[in-house]
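User: Predict the complex.
Assistant: Input components as received:
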Amino acid sequence: MTDIFFYIFSIAALAGAFGVVFSRNTVNGAMFLIGTFLSMASLFVLLEAYFLAVIQVLVYAGAVMVLFLFIIMLLDVKESAARKTSLYTWAASVIGFGILIVGVVAINSADSIREKAASLPEATGVSLKSFGYELFTTYLLPMQVTGFLLLIAMIGVIALSKKAKAD
Amino acid sequence: MEVNPIILKFVYAAIVVSVIMGLCSYAVLAERKISSWIQGRVGPNRTSLPLVGGIPVIGPFLTRLGIFQPIPDGLKFLFKEDVLPGHVNKFYFMMAPVISLVPALTTVVVVPFGRFVNEAGEVMPLVLANVNVGLLFLFAISSLGVYGVVLAGWSSNSKYPFLGGIRASAQMISYELAMGVSVLPILMWVNAPGKEGTLNLFDIALAQNGFWFAMWMPLSAIIFLVCLFAETNRLPFDMAESETELVSGFHTEYSSFKFGLFFVGEYAHMVIGSCVFALLFLGGWNPMPFVTLEALGMGQGIPGAVLSVGIFLGKMCAMMFFFMWIRWTLPRFRYDQVMKLGWTVLLPLSIANLILYTFIIYYLDTSL
């Protein structure tokens, strides 16, 4: 049962991702991205990581994508016309895809990673409390750094979009 | 007889969804009656059923109350001509009403609507899915409902619906923040040191056997209530519709059953919102502060469970009445006022409230 759901949601996630890349209409692209996020949340549910699943929906599907749609509609982005793909683009995509395949195969077949993964404790049923506790003790520095990065990005946006006053 | 648990879940879900749909249709009637009462009119008082309406005394009385009105209202949505304008994006135009209704009906699975005390004295929730992250699940799924409004506005491909859709998306994002921050003091109090972490709505309701949260966290309750109005798109925050400026906003181009779905979706959001407010701030199914059903000796077994559901539904109906009362009393905000209220008043206020209650809860937990 779980296996069937895993395949359904993985295929949905991948199909959504391809849809984002290939759709010419920006609103279609945004909807495909929402589909991908929801399928990924479902995969988290199958892993019994309910908190992550809910956060995925709440933050990405519920807030970030609403902003995306807001911007797309506000700027009234038109459907992009069909372009001829240049040779460089083709070559870069093929090479990139090849490297991705090599990476996935390498990760799946490497014994050292497999052994490490098998020896890790089960993540199922981790309570919210231990989640929060770890976040504010063991992983405090990475969390603060991530937050600071976002703050820098925000200040950058304000600095760029603010019109300079005429002297 | 052994029933397959999955089939049993389906049956329970069907029952709960049909109860919510019934509540929605009678909420429409209540809205019409309350509006007419506030405006000094009579309201719907003509519709009658052939047999029931013919019973002496009771029949005319029910007719004057408008009890039969939801039936023709619903049939009207089904049988009117379904206009599909030529300039719309058909796929999203058809999808949008469904997208706005489905999240509202999905959130109901984590809302406990009563409790059952078995013979061993264990308290069990009456809920479809008793998940640990209940409150977050509710926020997550209900935040998806805005896509219905936004897509309806965009796919209609005309000016007023488009403006309505854009306004809705900006408003949702602005008020979700203050709403989330305003419930944090409650979660801090429920997850006291030494307890297992929980965001379960049932546990939050059980934590209100003494004080209700609305009594000692009034600011949280007020901020949450204002944000609830904004999130359910009710007046004075119905920027997405605002008839006087935008004809009727995002659903201007909709007709017949598709419009009906939007209509039901709005009321379903209201029903769920009232349930959540009753659970978070009004003590769930406790009849009064400091008085539980157990203390009154009426909590045991099936009668106790029915009583708890009744009290909970009563609180929900009171909240629905409050929603409608506000709608027919206050005028609509201007759009810039809505944005200003969200970002410069409610958000700072909710953060200040959070910091204040952090210190209060720290004091209560350490020195008492």
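The mean pLDDT of chain B is 84.
Let me know if you want any component modeled separately.
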